[in-house]
């Protein structure tokens, strides 16, 4: 019999940690059924997000989202390549939590933007951002530091 190598034990422990066991209960008899094992797949599709729609879920590339606009308990997602926005029954805060790690900026109470699609930063009316689709979005006074930092990251001539 050969001794275990540290690598083999470590690999086995990682596999064990990523495996969850759940027990389902039969509602008629209230007796647990056979445990089911499944693997936890973390970040299997980086750069993509599942958006709930009436038909099911729509999988979007995060990099192609221009901006998100709040409308009460709904959010309008403007997506590059779509002629019409995608309406989602989620608050902007929910999308903000999912998209902030992808570089999105909340520049207004009702707007979350992808800085890759900023066309112009305007000084008019207290500060505005013009997006690639021609939409002008006002910058909140408490968010102008974020835009200034972003502006300073561009090379100027």
Radius of gyration using CA atoms only: 23 Å
Shape: globular
Taking strands numbered 1, 2, ... along the chain, how are they ordered across the largest sheet?
7-6-5-9-8
Q: Secondary-structure element order, as H and E?
A: HEEEEEEEHEEEEEH
Number of strands: 12
Q: Which residue ranges are poorly predicted, with pLDDT under 50 across at least 5 consecutive positions?
A: none
Share in β-strands: 25-35%
Mean pLDDT: 79
| Biggest sheet details | 5 strands, antiparallel
* Tally of individual helices: 3
**Helix/strand-derived class?**
alpha+beta
State the separation between the terminal residues, measured CA to CA: 70 Å
Helical content band: 10-25%
Write the layout of secondary structure elements.
Blueprint: H1 6-17, E1 19-22, E2 36-39, E3 48-52, E4 57-61, E5 65-71, E6 74-79, E7 86-88, H2 92-99, E8 105-108, E9 111-113, E10 118-122, E11 128-131, E12 136-138, H3 144-153
Antiparallel strand pairs: 1-2, 3-4, 5-6, 5-9, 6-7, 8-9, 10-11, 11-12
Give an account of the 3D structure.
With 157 residues, the chain is α+β, with helices and mostly antiparallel strands. Helices cover 19% and strands 34% of the residues. A 5-stranded antiparallel sheet has the order 7-6-5-9-8. A 3-stranded antiparallel sheet has the order 10-11-12, with no helix packed on it. The longest helix is centred in the first third of the chain and has 12 residues, at 6-17. The radius of gyration is 23 Å and the shape is globular. It starts with 5 loop residues before the first helix and ends with a helix. The mean pLDDT is 79.
